[in-house]
Design a protein that fits this description.
This protein is α/β, with parallel strands linked by helices. The chain is 34% helix and 19% strand. It contains 8 helices and 8 strands, in the order E-H-E-H-E-H-E-H-E-E-H-E-H-E-H-H. Strand 2, helix 2 and strand 3 form a beta-alpha-beta unit. The chain is globular, with a radius of gyration of 16 Å. Bound molecules: D-xylitol-5-phosphate and zinc ion (ZN).
């Protein structure tokens, strides 16, 4: 039961002066999901944007909004992101002491729930929440910035998480350093959704976004066989 690989361009690498046009452009260029990176300058050493900016982008595309929260605390802000138009909200296992409560809160808001692991965090910390999530996001860079190099040690973790998930209907998403060169490594290991920021937006034109999305998709699909 191999699902098609989904490509989720990360808006972090877009031109922030024209976010509406940028999300509409990647939508037309073949993006499956839109990946939205929220950073607070506390949990991660960078600040990006919050719910009102996501609400503004929501008017420019109907694509699935995949919201990756890199903030602590997270619980006080979940309702704001749900209201702003998130379809799925992912929270880091490292972001606070009450992961289970955060995931319950996301589902209570009527949204899909995801759990994220930094490259250095062992997958055992999410074993007890697998029945509460729709997606596991494995970071292949240390969160905070786009354009970093893929950390290859995570590929084995993708395999282990895939085995741990078993028959549960949970997607595995990979985030960080995804290119046509690295996509096959994680696709072969079991990834379902690939986030790509710089590898998509570096083109700077809608045609280029289309070529870049297609190249990542083709490389990933070929590796899945
Ligand atoms: C990093 C973010 C990523 C980032 C990926 O903290 O979670 O989504 O935008 O950027 P690239 O694809 O350039 O590594
Ligand atoms: Zn992300």
């Amino acid at each position: 039961m191999t699902r098609p690989v989904l490509i989720a361009p990360s808006v972090l690498a877009a031109d922030f002066a024209k976010l509406g046009e940028e999300v509409a452009a990647v939508d037309r260029a073949g993006a499956d999901w839109i990946h939205l990176d929220v950073m607070d300058g506390h949990f991660v050493p960078n600040i990006s944007y919050g719910p009102e900016v996501i609400r503004a982008m929501r008017r420019h595309t109907k694509k699935f909004f995949d919201v990756h929260l890199m903030i602590a605390p997270v619980d006080p802000y979940l309702a704001a992101f749900a209201d702003a138009g998130a379809d799925l909200i992912s929270v880091h296992a490292e972001a606070g002491p009450h992961l289970h409560r955060s995931l319950q809160a996301i589902r209570a808001l009527g949204k899909q729930a995801g759990v994220v692991l930094n490259p250095g965090t062992h997958e055992s910390v999410i074993e007890h929440v697998l029945d509460r999530v729709d997606l596991v996001l494995l970071m292949t860079v240390n969160p905070g910035f786009g354009g970093q190099a893929f950390i290859p040690e995570v590929v084995e973790k993708v395999r282990r998480v895939k085995a741990m998930i078993g028959a549960r209907p949970i997607l595995i998403e990979i985030d960080g350093g995804i290119t046509p060169e690295t996509a096959p490594l994680v696709a072969a290991a079991g990834a379902d959704v690939l986030v790509a920021g710089s590898a998509v937006f570096k083109a700077g034109t809608e045609e280029g976004y289309g070529r870049n999305i297609a190249a990542i998709r083709a490389a990933a699909e070929a590796a899945r066989g």
